[in-house]
């Protein structure tokens, strides 16, 4: 695999090595990838929690009867479409 780094990235890596924070470029890259993986898992977990909240909210609305019958919704949409079509004619 070949990668191209910006000058700033190369300087940063070199500085980290010079300061003794890492023993090798491989060690630095390995830790960077581990942190990226951890971040991605946290983002996925956050999205999952948000989805669970939306589902719970919808389930609560259904339980309270705060829903509209699908046939009513489609009838309203068809009426709006008819009105638009009539106004364009």
Q: Rough shape?
A: elongated
User: What is the count of helical runs?
Assistant: 3
Order of helices and strands: HHH
Residue-averaged pLDDT: 92
Radius of gyration: 28 Å
Please indicate the count of domains.
1
The computed structural class is: mainly alpha
Share of helix, binned = over 70%
Number of strands: 0
| Biggest sheet descriptor | none
What share of residues are in beta strands? under 5%
In short:
The chain has 89 residues and is mainly alpha-helical. The chain has helices spanning 7-18, 25-63, 70-88. The protein starts with 6 loop residues before the first helix and ends with a helix.
What brief labels describe this structure?
89 residues; mainly alpha; 3 helices; 79% helix
Could you explain how this protein is built, in words?
This protein is mostly helical and 89 residues long. It has one domain. It contains three helices and no strands. The chain has helices spanning 7-18, 25-63, 70-88. The protein starts with 6 loop residues before the first helix and ends with a helix.
Question: Any chance you could write out the topology, listing elements then pairs?
Answer:
Layout: H1 7-18, H2 25-63, H3 70-88
